[in-house]
Structures are given as structure tokens and as C-alpha cells.
Specification:
- With 344 residues, this protein is α/β, with parallel strands linked by helices.
- Helices cover 41% and strands 19% of the residues.
- A 7-stranded parallel sheet has the order 3-2-1-7-8-9-10, sandwiched between helices. Strands 5-4-6 form a 3-stranded antiparallel sheet. Strands 11-12 form a two-stranded antiparallel sheet.
- Strand 4 and strand 5 form a beta hairpin.
- The longest helix is centred in the last third of the chain and has 15 residues.
């Protein structure tokens, strides 16, 4: 279907807010920017591992990694600049560090430690489509509690703790609890035509956003079309054995029942050899338990939105964006005089 279907007279397209983190969110953004300029990414800042963790510890700044990924996804720059942002150092004390992370760290320094201002400045340098916003500028850490009562503090430690405890995550929380949301993020949610949650790591990229004070209330109050974009595969060290309904229950447990009435799941076939390789790592295609989802009052929307690259199953940015914009076109009706949207 042509992009023209999705763009209004101004050429900017519907107001979309995408909430999450990690590679799943940035992949979706790459597709969405083809169809709308009114795009806001609201991104978690709970990461404490890898290059982001090093910069967080040494410079006292918020973790730049997920933010950087989203900025790169929405950037409109020459190929050389894109290559530069993706470059990772291979030797010395900077080994494994991304130049994009260092760039954002430098902007944070010249912005007087104002991380949201640094993100805004980098957005201007990269001429991004839309906006990227940290969900909060508070220095938060993520704590996970498991079903056996064990607890672990630090997003990067959750994977290893879950493997050791060999039981499901009961809940996650931010410390300190209830950090305030960034005001522009709440404003974007209030004005959105469509709000998307995910795709991404359930407990470490998606749910942490819902624990920021004001985010859930803003989503619940919105008249936008609200869709949870489910992962294609379960995730080792986080959601082994989870079904679509298990993901939804976890979101509702942390964010409130009925927060998202629609769930988009993948219908693209996955080759048997790829499934076998994932199985060796404790992951599998997300099982769609329709009856259980119906009991949660969530409507499942099945669309072919995945692809296989280098043996890995990923959301296809173009297929996913087209499916979402088609749903927006088909399922949203403007309420006369209110400037709001509702699900038919």
C-alpha cells in the first residue's frame, strides 16, 4: 500500500508514540519514519551494562545506548556519518565502546549534565525524523524479584540471576521508585493518535517505562489507538516458556489491567532450522494462546511482520510499520469535535 494513504494534507502523518527500548524499538522506528514525521520515541534509561554502563559509572550520566540506537534509526545523515556512529573501538580502554555513545556523552558534558538537552542537540545534529525522549531524567536502577523470592539489582544482572535461579520473574521495580516522567513525554502521549508498546525485552526494555510516574496514567487517559507489539521469539534469560498471554499479564500486572486492548503478533513462517537453533538457546517462537488472551480482554491481531537475517529472527521494519499504519487507518475513527481516536 502506498505511503500516501498514511500521510495527511500536511504530509506529516499521524502522531505516533512508541514506548520501549533496545533493538526492537529502534527497528520499529526505522520503518515508521517512512510513513510519518509525527513520531516520538519514549525510551527507558535503566540500562547499566556494556558501554552504556561504563559511561554511566565513570561520568555519572544516564545510559546512552538505547537512546543512541533510536537516534540512529531516525537519523537522516550521509552514509559516512551513519558508519561513524555505529563504529565500535576494538582496542585499548575504549574497546567495545560505541562512538555514538561517546558523542552523546560529549553533548551531555557541554549541556551541563542535562541529558534530555544533550539528546535534543544530538537530534538536531542528526536531523532525525521525529523526536527521541528519555522516559525520565532520574538516575534509576532496575531490580527484579523472582518467584522463589530471590532479588537482584541491576538490569545487566537479571539475565544471569534468572539462569541461576531457574524460575520466572515475579516483578520488577525501579529504584528509587516512582521517578517523575519527562514532561514532553507525557505531552506526546496525551496528543498521540496511536501509542505503541514494544517490541523489546519484556522486563528490561518495556515494563521499566511503565514504572515511571505519570506514564501509565497518561496512556490510560489517552483516546489513541493503543497496541502492544509482541516479540516474535521468547528471550533466553528473561521470558523462556512465555506465551503471548504471559507477556500481556506481566504488562497488566505492572501497568494496570486493560492498558493495551490490542496485541500485534507475528504470522510470518519461521524456518525449522532457525527454530532448532533458537531451541538450543532456550528460546522459541512466541506461542499465541488466543483463548487466554481473550480472557484478558485483549484482541490479537496476526500479521506477517518478521524476517530472518543471518539466522536470526527479527521484526522487519517495513512490514511492521505498514501493518501498524494499516491498523491505524482501519481501526481508528476521529471523534467529532474532540480530536481524539477510539478503537472501533
Amino acid at each position: 500500500m502506498s505511503e500516501k494513504l498514511y500521510r495527511g494534507p500536511s504530509g506529516k502523518g499521524p502522531k505516533i508514540v512508541a514506548i520501549g527500548g533496545g533493538t526492537g524499538l529502534s527497528t520499529m522506528l526505522r520503518g515508521l519514519k517512512r510513513y510519518t514525521n509525527n513520531l516520538t520515541a519514549v525510551v527507558t534509561v535503566a540500562d547499566d551494562g556494556g558501554g552504556s554502563g561504563v559511561l554511566r559509572q565513570e561520568l555519572g550520566m544516564l545510559p546512552p545506548g538505547d537512546i543512541r540506537n533510536c537516534l540512529e534509526a531516525l537519523a537522516n545523515v550521509e552514509p559516512l556519518m551513519s558508519e561513524l556512529l555505529h563504529y565500535r573501538f576494538t582496542e585499548g580502554s575504549l574497546k567495545g565502546q560505541s562512538f555514538g555513545n561517546l558523542f552523546l556523552a560529549a553533548l551531555n558534558g557541554i549541556s551541563g549534565g542535562s541529558f534530555d538537552q544533550a539528546v535534543s542537540r544530538m537530534s538536531q545534529v542528526l536531523a532525525i525524523t521525529g523526536r527521541v525522549l528519555p522516559v525520565t531524567t532520574s538516575d534509576v536502577q532496575l531490580e527484579a524479584e523472582f518467584e522463589n523470592g530471590a532479588k537482584v539489582l541491576g538490569e545487566s544482572k537479571i539475565f544471569y540471576c534468572k539462569k541461576r535461579e531457574d524460575c520466572r520473574i515475579r516483578q520488577v521495580r525501579l529504584l528509587p521508585e516512582h521517578p517523575p516522567a519527562l514532561a514532553p513525554a507525557l505531552d506526546a502521549i496525551e496528543k498521540a493518535d496511536m501509542i505503541l508498546l514494544g517490541p523489546g525485552s519484556l522486563y528490561t526494555s518495556i515494563i521499566p517505562n511503565l514504572l515511571v510516574d505519570g506514564i501509565v496514567d497518561a496512556i490510560a487517559a489517552s483516546g489513541a489507538l493503543k497496541i502492544y507489539v509482541a516479540n516474535v521469539m521468547t528471550q533466553e534469560g528473561e521470558t523462556e516458556g512465555y506465551t503471548a498471554a504471559d507477556h500481556i499479564r506481566a504488562i497488566f500486572q505492572h501497568g494496570g489491567e486493560g492498558l493495551f486492548p490490542l496485541c500485534l503478533v507475528n504470522a510470518s513462517p519461521i524456518p525449522a532450522d532457525v527454530i532448532e537453533r533458537y531451541a538450543r538457546e532456550g528460546a522459541e517462537p512466541l506461542r499465541v494462546d488466543s483463548a487466554a488472551c481473550k480472557e484478558l480482554h485483549v484482541e490479537l491481531l496476526s500479521r506477517p511482520v518478521s524476517t530472518v537475517r543471518d539466522g536470526h529472527v527479527r521484526h522487519d521494519p517495513v512490514l511492521l510499520a505498514a501493518a501498524l499504519l494499516n491498523l491505524h487507518s482501519q481501526r481508528s475513527v476521529r471523534i467529532a469535535g474532540l480530536g481524539r481516536y477510539r478503537t472501533e
